[in-house]
C-alpha cells in the first residue's frame, strides 16, 4: 500500500492549542471528526486538558458539575493504596467496592480550520463542551455526517454511569442543537451513513460487553436518526491478526462503485491500533462483501509510535477526491496527522468473502 504522509505531520499537536481552562495543560489534540464547510476543511478536534499539579504526589481529576455548570477538581494522593495510577489516562479504585474510575483529563470538541487541508488555525473556545450529567467526565472522538445542509456530530460521552454516544447538529458550526444520547452505555465508535438506504438510516456502533461477547462492530437502523433498533452483529475479531483485540468504526462510510467503504480501526491484544477497511453492500449494508486481511495503515512514523499512548493510528474522518482518500487521523492519542491513500489500492487489497 502506497501511503503519502504529509510533510507537515503532525499537522496539529498539543503545543498548538491554548488551554481553555486556567492552570491546565493540553495533553492531546487528536481523533478529530472531519467536515467541509464554506470552502474550508474543518477538523473537530478532541482536545484533552489536564489540571497542572505542583505536587508530584497529587493527581487532580477534573469533573464537570452540571448543577453549577463549572469544572471541579478532586485531588488524590499517589500513595493512597485504594487507587491504581498505573494508566496515565485513568485512576481506578483498587478496592472493588465501587469500581469507580476518574479520568486524569477532560475532553471537549474544538474546531480547527484550513483552506488547504494542511495548515490549520484553531478556534479559541470549545465548539461542544460538557453540558449534562452524561458528560461529566468529558466528550471524546467526534465524527461528522453531512446530510443536505445539516451536519450531525456525534461523540462518546463519559460519566460515572458509563460511556454512551450523544449527538448534536448544526448548519453553520456556530449554533448547535443537542439531541441527547442516541446509544446508551456501554457503547461508542458510532458511525452514521451519509444517506438513507432503502428508506432507512444506518449506523455502525460498538457495544462493550462486560459478560459474554467481545468489543466488535454492530449495525443498527433508524427512521429519524434518534431512535435506533434492529441491531445486528456485523463483524468480529480475528484471532492472531491485526484486529484480534478490539475493533470499531473509524471514518464515515463513503460510496464506491463496489459498495460502501468503511475505514475502521482494529487493535491487537497489546493495544497496537491500525486502520483497515471493510466493503459493505450498497443496498444492504448489513452484508459484508470484502475485508482487509492486512492493515491499510499501521503505526510506522515516529509520531505514530511515540506519544501519550503510543503505537496508535486512529481515524475519525476522511475526504475523498477521485482516487485520493485523504485520511485525517489521531496519532499516539496525542496529535493529528493526515495521509493520502489510493482508493483503488485499498479496494484491490481487500479479501472478498
TrEMBL record:
It holds the Pfam family Glyco_hydro_130. GO terms for molecular function: glycosyltransferase activity; hydrolase activity, acting on glycosyl bonds. Keywords: Glycosidase, Glycosyltransferase, Hydrolase, Transferase. It comes from the Bacteria. Belongs to the glycosyl hydrolase 130 family. This is Glycosidase. The lineage of its organism: Bacteria, Bacillati, Bacillota, Bacilli, Bacillales.
